[in-house]
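In the current project phase, we have settled on a layout for protein records. A sample record is reproduced below.
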Amino acid sequence: MSDITNIYPGIDIEEIRAAAKDISNGAVTAGYQGNRQQVVAMLNDALATELVCVLRYKRHYYTASGLLNGPIRAEFLLHAQEEQAHADLLAARIVQLNGKPDFNPNTLTARSHAEYDDSDNILAMIKANLISERVAIESYRQMIKDLGDTDPTTRLLLAGIMAKEEEHADDMRDLLVT
C-alpha cells in the first residue's frame, strides 16, 4: 500500500486506484450512476435523429434550385456537415458506454425524432428544417433533464449538440424572414 496524501479529503485515492484495476468496462467506472442500457438506447435514438437530419439537409442541398438560392444551399450543406459531426459524437459516446451504435437504415426513420422531408419548394424546405431543429432542441432538452446528474459526460455532450441545434434553428428562422 502506498502512502498517499490526499490534498482533498473527499477523494479516496486508494479506493479509486483499486477500482480502476477492473478494466473490463473501459471508460465506464464503478462510480457511473446512469442506466447504461437506457442511456445507449436514448443515444441511439438521437443518432437516428441526427442521421435523418443529415439526409434531409443533403437532399435539400442537392435539390434546391434557382440563382438566388446559392447561399441557402450553402447553409443546408453546412448544417448537413454539422449534423454528421453530431452523429459521430453520439456514436463515439455509445461505444464509450460499451454499447453499439445503431446505423440500421431499415429502422432509421422509425427511431428518429425528426422527420425526413422531400419538399421541392425552397420555402417548404426551410420550414421543414426549422421544425426538425425545434424537435431536436426539445428532444435534447428532455434527454438532458432525464439524465440529471447520473451521467455528466453524456449530459455535457447533449448540451453542446443542443446549443448547435439552437444555432441551426436561428439560421432557418433568419432565412424565413429575409
